[in-house]
Amino acid sequence: MRLEDLGEFPLIARLTAGLESRADVALGVGDDAAALDLGVGHLLLATCDAQVEGIHFLPSIATPEEIGHKALAVNLSDIAAMGGEPLWALVSLLAPPALDVATLDGVYAGMRALARRFNVALVGGNVSSTPGPLTLDITLLGRVTRERMLTRAGAHPGDRLLVTGRLGAAVTALLALTATPAQTSLPAEALAEARGAMVTPQPRVREGMALAATGVVSAMLDISDGLAGDLGHLCERSNVGAIVELATLPVDASTRALARALGRDASRIALTSGDEYELLFTVRPDGVAEAVEAVRAVGGMATVIGEMTEPGQGLRVREPDGALLPLDPRGWDHLRDGSPG
Amino acid sequence: MRLEDLGEFPLIARLTAGLESRADVALGVGDDAAALDLGVGHLLLATCDAQVEGIHFLPSIATPEEIGHKALAVNLSDIAAMGGEPLWALVSLLAPPALDVATLDGVYAGMRALARRFNVALVGGNVSSTPGPLTLDITLLGRVTRERMLTRAGAHPGDRLLVTGRLGAAVTALLALTATPAQTSLPAEALAEARGAMVTPQPRVREGMALAATGVVSAMLDISDGLAGDLGHLCERSNVGAIVELATLPVDASTRALARALGRDASRIALTSGDEYELLFTVRPDGVAEAVEAVRAVGGMATVIGEMTEPGQGLRVREPDGALLPLDPRGWDHLRDGSPG
To answer: For a Cys staple, A51 with which of A56, A256, B35, B107, CB 3.0–4.6 Å?
Structure first.
């Protein structure tokens, strides 16, 4: 069987089945980051994520600086999703020997600028030649106290479902920049903003730490695989169901404009958009105001978009007319869905 | 300028020049691993290294299990080179969608078998598709006490130079398996042993920890870039020179057999062989017996192969007839030297 026939998540499950552990592994494979017990109150968080030319980025769309930014941003987002503080990064670079050095200068400039913003030190890495595409594989280490760490497990029926920021811009830019009819339908300013969301996503590190500090958040992850897919991951791990109120989704203005032009439903684009780096989290009912205020206090925004239910009811969306429909939890599969973002 | 014109080490220097740090970074870019201060007596060690099909391994030579073994082994070797205890690994997998799942089953089986041997837990990772070759990029975390950590700096003139194990088998196997005249000149048993050294290198983790515990070792690194090249790195970082006694090199029997058949000098093959994972270290003159015994006590072997000198004298080899010749410190350059090992 080929990898693309099996798919990303079944492959991970297969490769990591019955994995040996150690007593100091607080959280192994299966969340946004691993959590390792240092025996000192803090847990060490560790995550890695690769960006491959032609899969995760296109040099025709993103500048070297933007490619470097995003390679670190996707990892910062994973640490943010645990409520953690990012600290140290290792950069593994796989580059074709004929690549221009100036391209890498730009990639590192973009990466270093973002690292500075979050006080992250680049402490190591590796350079290797490859006959394949330029690939940046970053491992990011961070820390969080055991009491504050937020995982995908922990949501309960009745908890409210919230998301940071606005949804849909990344896939809007992808559609607009790779399909001419879509492109011509977007105002230049909306396109530029959506493009920014796609190539320089802003990891919600401050929001994640602020939410972890409230004590009212029960589960959290980032929605790099899209809202529907990652909500599915959260529900599976927490053993709950969910209802998403379609009318409440904070859909980006660019997505609304594109949806109008294409005659599509903006909320549905936002629901399944991959490659976004907002935080999706659940809050106990009496803590919603506190959670929203905590995100606002660090300059972000958070919106209530639904509610967790008993597991037997699965994932559903409530249409604006009140109808409840099943939600396909299938998110982005990096082995089967090949489009760059 | 293209990467291959600049070369691996100048590229790393260029990309990491003036890198921002943090107060808790005890050791950043430039050694076998980064060392991060957890504020608890222990330092966290972090290293990453990638194995790329066609560059670091050939499926025609190595089985999937052997490929998985080596991908972890090269990282274990880096933690060993700091005198550290390996703990946790993250595996980033870049795989073509058409790859057979059974290949990855084998790769993970090899990796997990080696992880078990050293009590290392695989705690996370990432799977991504790539239009390029199969690539395994592993980040390994470990720990060491600050007093015991061994770096490339710290060697003094007069210190003795030692190396673990035997040298030359990896390059011997590479020559024998890729060049027919060489292949036919090696007895089958010698070839099988050399092949084993190339595809399943044994990281010297126990030796590294035992050496760190003695307190008599002044500097250490692993010789993944070859003895000559890595000795150059150690001398540069410690600001010393070195004399290698050619007659004392513990050259592998397979290398001697190959050298005889090809009419070449076995010691010179061993000196420049890349892709070996022995430890090269310096010991103060009164500590040699203790260091050798420490390695022997954990089942290994260590050999005195030279002495450190004042820096002005550079790197030299003493021929069996007593003549002192300059030693080219150029080691393996992963951007310029493309052969797999």
So the answer is: A56
